[in-house]
Structures are given as structure tokens and as C-alpha cells.
Design brief:
117 residues; 6-stranded antiparallel beta sheet; alpha+beta; 4 helices
Length: 117
């Protein structure tokens, strides 16, 4: 997956936005103000931090050398994924899972608003 594909995929989700709160190089993808992905799109290697169920996070790290505890994040709930080290399909699934986890944590009224969008 190339950087522009990663960016485009993150922005496909309902109410997803891209912000740059830390610096101009770090894209922070949010849904209704909550982060679901962080990446430096010009990074070498291209990596992305993604939210993950804690049990799944441990399993994924054991199964894939390209998935490690989240860099500068809560290591229990976030993974850093080396995009080049995984099939595009899996990277997309991990991004979607991260988005879904964040949405699940939103208040019910905001989740309902997303369903209607």
C-alpha cells in the first residue's frame, strides 16, 4: 500500500477527517474528534498507529513481525503497523477495525448520527 492509498482509505470512512495537530508531517485521522489512525505519510518505512482490542493486539504482534506495540501510544490498545510488511487486505482490515473500535466508544447519539450520514 502506498501513502496516498493509505490516506484515501482512512478518509473513506463516515465522518473521517485528517488533521495535523502535532506537526505538518503527521496525519491524524479522526472520527467525530476521536483518533483512529496516525501516520507520517512520508515516513520510511511507512507505518501507521491503529487502535486495537487488547487481546487481538497481543495475538497480532505474535503472528506478524510487522506489528509492534504502538509507538508513543498506550501499548495495550494501540499497535504500530509497518505497512510494507503486510498484505494490503490485512492493513485495510486493521484500519477498519480501529475505526470501528473508536466508533463503538462514541456516545449513542453520535453513533446514531453516523449511521444516518
Amino acid at each position: 500500500m502506498k501513502p496516498e492509498q493509505l490516506r484515501a482509505f482512512c478518509l473513506e470512512f463516515n465522518a473521517a477527517t485528517e488533521e495535523f495537530p502535532f506537526n505538518p508531517e503527521t496525519s491524524v485521522f479522526k472520527v467525530l474528534g476521536k483518533v483512529f489512525a496516525l501516520t507520517a505519510l512520508d515516513g520510511k518505512p511507512l507505518t501507521v498507529n491503529l487502535k486495537c482490542d487488547p487481546d487481538d493486539a497481543v495475538r497480532l504482534r505474535e503472528e506478524h513481525a510487522a506489528i509492534v506495540p504502538g509507538w508513543h501510544m498506550n501499548k495495550r490498545h494501540w499497535n504500530t503497523v509497518d505497512v510494507a510488511g503486510l498484505p494490503d487486505r490485512l492493513v485495510r482490515e486493521l484500519i477498519e477495525d480501529s475505526y470501528d473500535l473508536v466508533v463503538a466508544g462514541l456516545p449513542k447519539a453520535e453513533r446514531l448520527r453516523l449511521d444516518r450520514a
